[in-house]
Amino acid sequence: MGCVTRPQPAKASMTARIERPLSPHLQTYRWTLTMALSIVHRATGIALYFGTLLFVWWLIAVSSGPTAYGNVQSFAASWIGRLIEFGYTWALMHHMLSGVRHLVWDLGYGFKPTEREWLTWAALIGGILLTVLLWVVAYAIGGGR
Amino acid sequence: MSAQNSSAPKSMRTPLGRVRNLGSSHSGTKDFWRQRLTAVAMIILVVPMIVVVMMLLGRNQAGAAQILGTPLIAIFVLLFIIASVWHMKIGMQVVIEDYIHDEKLKLVSIMANNFFSVAVALAAAYAIFKLSSGV
Fold it and tell me: Which of B38, B61, B67, B114 could be a cystine partner for A69, CB 3.0 to 4.6 Å?
């Protein structure tokens, strides 16, 4: 960022539009892994945001009584419920590992091409592995009750 | 750094940033820090939370209520709720600021985001407190 020819706003009024360089939009760039996973990080974040509604519904149902809890249980046991739960688990695990990657970058490490690719693959594969592992353990424990 | 900033060579703030004061979010870097703070908090809390969920699997309402009302578990769940709601509120605000350019719609969206987040946090906390008091 050389900033050789920064526009001088001194003379312009506060409301005047100043010509600033615009950054090209997404479609201009060659698609890369880190770029795709950056979008996935944001998408999983948004999904988890609305997923908290289900978490709260479940907590309120537990505190409301057996009837309300039964409704949640039957929804949770349906195929759509299981699908949402599986998706929620993956979104949470992926967003967490992807977030750890961002924390590593925040600290100034992992910016070399091989490092950032490695970190991104680790978040992607790790998220899937953790999700499957959690569901195997969940069925092993929950199925026994 | 440009020549204009030579008086404060270590500052990351641009001249435009100085003029507009604390940027488009009007809250400076506080949210940036809190986003990381709550992220680290959740990394610590995720293991106890997984244990709690595993404990609750296959239980009926009475069993689930008893487990969630246990002091240590209730505290872990409350901490997780606080960290996650704070984190998601900041995250959604970043998304809103990135994509919504109409100033009025942006303000309404940020308000809605705050209302949603506070409602989610309060509802979850209320449920935990109710279970903890055994009512």
Answer: B61
pLDDT in tens, B70-99: 999 999 999 999 999 999 999 999 999 999
User: How close does chain A come to B124, measured CA to CA in Å?
Assistant: 5
CB atoms within 10 A of CB B92: 21
Q: Do A45 and B64 touch (CB under 8 A)?
A: no
Whole-prediction pTM = 0.82
The residue type found at A7 is P
Please spell the DSSP secondary structure of B38-50, one letter per residue: HHHHHHHHHHHHH
**HSE value, Cβ hemisphere, 13 Å, CA-based, for A137:** 13
Smallest Cβ–Cβ distance between B130 and the set A45, A63, A106 belongs to A63
Tell me what ipTM this predicted complex has: 0.81
CB contact at 8 A, A90 and A127: yes
Selected for mutation to probe chain B from A44, A50, A56 (highest B CB count within 10 Å) is A56
Domains and CATH numbers, chain B: 28-133 (1.20.1300.10)
Which of A13, A49, A105 should one mutate to test binding to chain B, selecting the residue with the greatest count of B CBs within 10 A? A49
